[in-house]
User: What shape does this take?
Amino acid sequence: MGARRRSGLNSEAWGPVTDELARRLIGDAFPQAAGQTVTRFASGMDNDIFAVGDRWLARLPRHDFGRGNIEREILLLPSLPDLDLSLPQIVAVGEATSEYPSRFLLLNRLTGDQPGLQDRFVEDDARALGLALRRLHEAPRPGWLSGDVHGLFRAGQFLARLEQVLPIVSEADRLEFEPALRELIEPSEDPLENAEAWVHGDLHIRNLLCREGRLSGIVDWGDSHCGHPTHDLMAAYALFEPATREVFFEAYGPVPESWRSAARKQAAITTFVLLKANSEENAKEVPRQSLRRILA
Assistant: This one.
């Protein structure tokens, strides 16, 4: 698959998938869904997600970039190495139709929820994620896995991303976070040395699952690619307090200080974007908490 890049925060949106359209597409494509209730589960920047009964989730892309992510997941999910964390599995693939221009997925519904304000990750969580990412980054890469989706981040790219996001977050969030974000990302630094690994590619807090307060799974593999490990190491800054973060890096293995710096910057910008992506005010408190941890 060729490398794909986002041109901005949105990518030629077709528009949200309506509940009516989703029910029709899911009912026509998946015989196993007959008689199951279809309800909106979540909406992100790339996909609308619908619960199909209590066993499955259907992921339907909202734009061309999301369609590419679905095609990537169709190839990738069956090939993922064992990470000792729960991973999504494809149950069935729905085909494009005259009223919807993309294939879409029926996935098993993993037990767990996105991290909440009450979740406080401990050393066992940090160790589990560090070992999981080490296994992923050391795994043989499929021959079809393309290069870096987002481009290797440098200080200038972080700054450009920040300028994109600032107009579309609240004034209160700009006032709280912009000065510290600029202080973090504006200093120039030496380029990262080349390194390539099989990476998740979008490992922010909303693509992780918790069960009974413990880290349990990794979802949304549509941005996975052959890229720099710092794309994933950002999770250490988004999730863990400093002492617990060191347990993560002990499990993952030694990395240069330049990698840590880049991972922290990527964590900060990616988490700041989540303040735009969530329309409900109460859904923004977890990203805010994470961003305060990153910038401390």
Observations:
- The chain has a mean pLDDT of 89.
- The first strand starts at residue 38 and ends at 43.
- The chain is about 40% helix and 15% strand.
- Residues 19-108 form a domain with the Phosphorylase Kinase; domain 1 fold (CATH 3.30.200.20).
